[in-house]
TrEMBL record:
Residues 42-69 form a coiled coil. Keywords: Coiled coil, Membrane, Transmembrane, Transmembrane helix. It comes from the Bacteria. InterPro entries: DUF6090. The chain crosses the membrane at residues 21-42. It comes from Flagellimonas okinawensis. The keyword Transmembrane helix applies. This is DUF6090 family protein.
């Protein structure tokens, strides 16, 4: 093809048809420029297609991770809710109710009120994406900001969980150890593993003490705030899942 155009140029030049030669040369330059522009456009299109494919993979990974963390966070919220219900029960127990409950039943309520568990969010992919400064979602202008809000909420839960664990270790265990028989407390829950202690303690008066009341009032306030943050995070998670489904419909598993 190049030889063909070269022969045409030579023939026009040899025939002294200079004007036509200039026009032809100009046309050839234009064709070359158009070819370069087309090649650049194709290259840009290929790069854009690769970026969209990468973005779709990331959206799919985030979508799956959000689904998994929704389960983890919901189960944790239900667990904290149960603990707080036990805390509230012991905090509001009346003298008449106290008389109708045995030491075993009271120990069971106290044990259930102290069963704090660790919160281990599934957010590795989220952290990785938020750590990429230049990354953005072309199908949504607000998704990245919403993911940051969600990440902040996850961090708040993690901090609250650590605080609750510290309260259990540094406040509840020392208080219960000083005023109750921890062995009897554990015996009521695991009678086949832990024998009953010879140190009998009447639990009722301890529950009605000012120290117990203040401790459990503080626990109730903390857990109520904890549950609110968990519920907010669950709502954020559901909204993000819906957002990704609308922006990237292909992430939805086919039945």
């Amino acid at each position: 093809m190049i030889k063909f155009f070269r022969k045409i140029r030579q023939r026009l030049f040899m025939e002294n048809r200079f004007t036509k030669y200039l026009l032809y040369a100009l046309g050839e330059i234009i064709l070359v420029v158009i070819g370069i522009l087309i090649a650049l456009q194709i290259n840009n299109w290929n790069e854009h297609r690769k970026e969209l494919q990468k973005e779709l993979v990331i959206a799919k990974e985030l979508y799956n991770e959000l689904q998994q963390n929704l389960i983890v966070t919901t189960k944790h919220q239900q667990n904290i809710e149960k603990i707080n219900q036990e805390v509230l029960f012991l905090l509001n127990i009346s003298n008449d109710s106290l008389k109708s409950l045995t030491n075993k039943e009271l120990n069971e309520h106290i044990f259930k009120s102290s069963k704090i568990t660790s919160y281990r969010p599934i957010n590795q992919k989220l952290k990785r994406i938020l750590g990429i400064e230049s990354f953005g979602f072309s199908h949504s202008k607000t998704l990245l900001n919403e993911l940051q809000d969600y990440n902040n909420s996850i961090d708040d839960i993690t901090a609250m969980n650590l605080s609750a664990v510290e309260v259990f270790r540094n406040m509840m265990v020392p208080f219960l150890g000083e005023n109750l028989s921890l062995k009897n407390l554990m015996h009521e829950m695991y009678p086949n593993k832990i024998t009953k202690s010879d140190n009998y303690v009447d639990v009722g008066p301890i529950i009605k003490s000012m120290a117990f009341e203040n401790l459990y009032a503080d626990l109730f306030a903390s857990y109520t705030s904890y549950i609110f943050t968990l519920e907010r995070t669950i709502e954020l998670t559901k909204n993000l899942i819906t957002h990704i489904e609308k922006a990237y419909p292909s992430v939805i598993p086919t039945k």
